[in-house]
Design brief:
globular, ClpP/crotonase-like_dom_sf, COA_CT_N, 17% strand, single chain, 542 residues, Carboxyl transferase domain-containing protein, 18 strands, MCCB/AccD1-like, 7-stranded mixed beta sheet, alpha/beta
Length: 542
């Protein structure tokens, strides 16, 4: 056991180290030369702006750091999607912060940039959090304009959200700290207040070159849309600041005067650390996704005092449900048990599989947490629902539908952590991205796919081979083996947490020891938004 524990510990620490190494590279944005050009203009870098804006020694939770990772390589890449987003504290107030990174293609918007901005706004909307925009962008990246401009979840949705947040009373403050061009000009101006930095900030619908070609007027960008124009002539902006730091100081000052908010009222007592050492998680999670382990041991290392009020402990054991606290906050835990179980009926149940009894139990528990106004934490390591004639005749689809229904209609905040496998409909039932978790993060051990790699690859190869044979092409055993290897490698690459995080299927990849902090910050954010909708599951399968 000790040898296995130590082996797991070494491998999982290496995985965490890989995450931190890749993040360090991402944090350099567009590189040293691009950073130097920003400095020459007297501008702070995006991450420097955030560090200066947020309260000293306060928590900063980055969202979407891996966005765009290994994407758009033909265009030179787009580290962090060219925009930095997260939850931070400004003058003691929890806020969403969105900062364009002008070292990445002058802050131009790629498709993933729009998706990431919309995710930040979604979090602000769901939690009624103030949002601060640090704007420094050249506008839409024209070579990809068709993938960013016209559709419902594209660029224009951002301004629609600006308007809706304003109507909901969600505070929006913008600082124009560089270029702010064309449609992007609306974002800061649709905020409650907009300030502009003299000399570097500019905002206009069309730059000097476009004005010249469109109407033949010769004019420079500063006259078109600089600080003096908009603070003293047009009245478009509200404050003129001499430099980046002065603008950030002004935001801090404004935020210090914001009134208190109505609380949702989630229960919190004095926080306590787990009695069982959370660092032991590294040794408890196996070195591969096929091995069994006891998820309860993970749960206990995430909860205050390692205290857990387990719900229906002897029934539906392939899902663990129960109540506990994280950093003082009351939470309901729904977690996939990964060890082999023998039910009281004598049935052997595989770990990570959702059976009828466990789906039934989880549904009832989720409904209970909604009744009690207790936030839900989902810990995913799920291979899917049980298949086969016995399960089908036992009504697994009906029981799975009940669970999906309860998750979908939940009104309490939900937070999801993908610890291991996240396959097929199991991803949905355990509150995957499509089911509106307030935050969703992956551990480095996560794998996200419609089904396991081996099964998927074999199925895909069988389809390809059948297609080739239908065309009269002979498929040798060697060709089939090579096809299987290529398909398996491609499939596995698409199931990594990095692939998911690059596309914002998850908000990031974290060290497991960060889980408690994220839950606490997430519930604190959710506490800004009182629950107004009644819990109603509609027609539920019985």
């Amino acid at each position: 056991m000790d040898i296995e524990f130590n082996k797991n510990e070494d491998i999982n620490k290496q995985l965490v180290y890989e995450v931190s190494t890749r993040l360090k590279k991402i944090y350099h944005g567009g590189g040293e030369k691009a950073a130097a050009r920003q400095k020459e203009k007297g501008k702070m870098l995006a991450r420097e702006r955030i560090a200066y804006l947020i309260d000293k020694d306060s928590n900063w939770l980055e969202i979407g750091a891996f966005a765009g990772d290994c994407m758009y390589t033909e265009h030179g890449g787009c580290p962090s999607g060219g925009v930095i987003t997260g939850i931070g504290y400004v003058s003691g107030r929890q806020c969403i912060i969105v900062a364009n990174d002008a070292t990445v293609k002058a802050g131009a918007w790629f498709p993933i940039t729009a998706k990431k901005n919309l995710r930040a706004q979604e979090i602000a909307l769901e939690n009624r959090l103030p949002i601060i925009y640090l704007v420094d962008s050249a506008g839409v990246f024209l070579p990809l304009q068709d993938e960013i401009f016209p559709d419902k979840e594209h660029f224009g949705r951002i301004f629609r959200n600006n308007a809706q947040m304003s109507s909901m009373g969600i505070i929006q403050i913008a600082a124009i700290m560089g270029s702010c061009v064309a449609g992007g000009a609306y974002l800061p101006i649709m905020s409650d207040e907009a300030m502009i930095v003299e000399g570097t900030g500019s905002v206009f619908l069309a730059g000097a070159f476009l004005v010249k070609s469109a109407i033949g007027e010769d004019v420079d960008n500063e006259t078109l849309g600089g600080a003096t124009t908009h603070c003293e002539i047009s009245g478009v902006t509200d404050y003129k600041q001499p430099n980046d730091k002065a603008a950030l100081d002004s935001i801090r000052n404004i935020m210090s005067m914001v009134g208190d908010f109505t609380k949702a009222g989630f229960d919190r007592i004095k926080p306590a650390v787990p009695k069982l050492n959370p660092k032991e998680i590294y040794g408890l999670v196996p070195d591969n996704r096929e091995k069994a382990y006891d998820m309860l041991e993970i749960v206990l290392r995430l909860l205050d005092n390692s205290e857990f009020e387990e719900y229906k402990a002897g029934y539906g054991q392939s899902i663990i449900c129960g109540l506990g606290r994280v950093d003082g906050w009351a939470v309901g835990i729904v977690a996939n048990q990964r060890k082999l179980i023998k039910s009281k009926k004598g049935e052997m149940q595989f770990g990570g599989v959702i059976y009828s009894d466990s789906a039934d139990k989880a549904t009832r528990f989720i409904m209970n947490c909604n009744q009690k106004r207790i936030p839900l934490i989902f810990l995913q390591d799920v291979t899917g629902f049980m298949v086969g004639s016995r399960s089908e005749q036992g009504g697994i689809i009906k029981d799975g539908a009940k669970m999906v229904n309860a998750v979908a209609n939940s009104v309490v905040p939900k937070f999801t952590f993908v610890i291991g496998n996240s396959y097929g409909a199991g991803n949905y039932a355990m509150c995957g991205k499509a089911y509106d978790p307030r935050l969703i993060y992956a551990w480095p051990t996560a794998k996200i796919a419609v089904m396991g790699g081996a099964q998927a690859a074999k199925t895909l190869v069988q389809i390809q081979a059948a297609g080739m044979k239908a065309k009269g092409q002979e498929v040798t055993a060697e060709q089939e083996a090579e096809l299987l290897k290529q398909t398996t490698d491609r499939y596995h690459a698409q199931t990594t947490p990095y692939y998911a995080a690059a596309r914002l299927w998850v908000d990031g990849i974290i060290d497991p020891l960060e889980t408690r902090r994220i839950i606490s910050m997430g519930i604190e954010a959710a506490n800004h938004a009182p629950i107004e909708k009644a819990f109603n599951v509609g027609i539920i399968q019985t």
